[in-house]
Design brief:
By secondary structure, the protein is mainly alpha-helical. It has a domain of 170 residues: MetI-like fold (Orthogonal Bundle), CATH 1.10.3720. Helices cover 71% and strands 0% of the residues. It is built from eleven helices and no strands. Helix 3 runs antiparallel to helix 8. 24% of the residues are buried. This is ABC transporter permease. Keywords: Cell membrane, Membrane, Transmembrane, Transmembrane helix, Transport. Pfam families: BPD_transp_1 (PF00528).
């Protein structure tokens, strides 16, 4: 009787998970299929032939849109945000291991941007830059706007990591004569490296597909999300679907590469 009940619960959860996966990846599958439309195909089903025409069109000069430039800007912006997020989150995690004057106020100040609407932050940063006489751009104002989104998440993750980190490992290293830097380099850093990689991936992906905080801060050059949004109003060919397929595959490759790096570090750490 008990096994029958567990069996029903398993099937219910399996059906729920299947519906969730279908809801999550169903639209992506439609984009993937439509990106292989024939040369005379349109934006809707059924397919009018099958070809790679629209993928090749991505590398041609476009009458509307700048695929290559917007992708490079998003990738560079994501890398910049990722590096700063990892460094600042690590330093914040180390600093907050001990109580200091103003730590509580600083913590709430750091995470306050999570409760402010993204479009308001984007508008505020854009207005401030204009009032100061600076031209908003993707590598200055948009960079700062993205950090208001990624840093709170990175800091919270590192707080959770260090909250579970036992100081006994550091004490043992110091007892063996290790300096503070050696303790951090050879003990602390290898143990938290997978978490730092996760923070980096989180920061990159949040920046790479951020729209609202980029809308008023990117200046004259669009990032990829802004470019795709602009294309939806004036591009009438499946090249838009091809671009969606390429960016989705790129996102999955980044995730797979990051997971592979984490697995490699864990195996290396466990080796005698």
């Amino acid at each position: 009787m008990h096994s029958d009940k567990r069996g029903r619960e398993f099937y219910i959860l399996a059906i729920f998970f299947a519906i969730f996966v279908l809801f999550l990846y169903g639209p992506l599958s439609a984009i993937l299929i439509l990106s292989f439309q024939g040369p005379n195909g349109g934006l809707t089903f059924p397919l009018n032939g099958v070809s790679l025409r629209w993928f090749a069109n991505l590398f041609e000069t476009q009458a509307v849109g700048d695929f290559g430039g917007s992708f490079r800007r998003s990738a560079m912006l994501g890398i910049m945000v990722m590096i700063v997020t990892v460094v600042v989150s690590l330093l914040a995690g180390l600093a907050f291991r001990r109580r200091f004057i103003g730590s509580t106020a600083l913590f709430y100040l750091a995470v306050a941007s999570l409760v402010v609407p993204s479009i308001i932050i984007s508008l505020g940063i854009g207005v401030v830059f204009q009032q100061l006489g600076f031209q908003p751009s993707w590598y200055t104002s948009a960079f700062g706007a993205h950090l208001t989104w990624t840093l709170p998440f990175g800091v919270l993750i590192m707080f959770a990591v260090f909250n579970r980190f036992s100081p006994a490992y550091e004490e043992a290293a110091r007892d063996l004569g290790a300096s503070p830097w050696q303790t951090f380099r050879h003990v602390v850093l290898p143990m938290i490296a997978p978490s730092l990689i996760g923070v980096g991936l989180f920061g990159f992906t949040l920046s790479y597909d951020e729209f609202a905080r980029t809308l008023m801060t990117s200046g004259s050059f669009n990032t990829l999300p802004l470019e795709i949004y602009g294309m939806t109003t004036n591009v009438t060919t499946p090249v838009l679907y091809a671009l969606g397929t390429v960016t989705t595959v790129f996102s999955f490759l980044v995730i797979a590469g990051t997971l592979g790096l984490i697995v490699h570090l864990n195996r290396r750490r466990l080796q005698p």
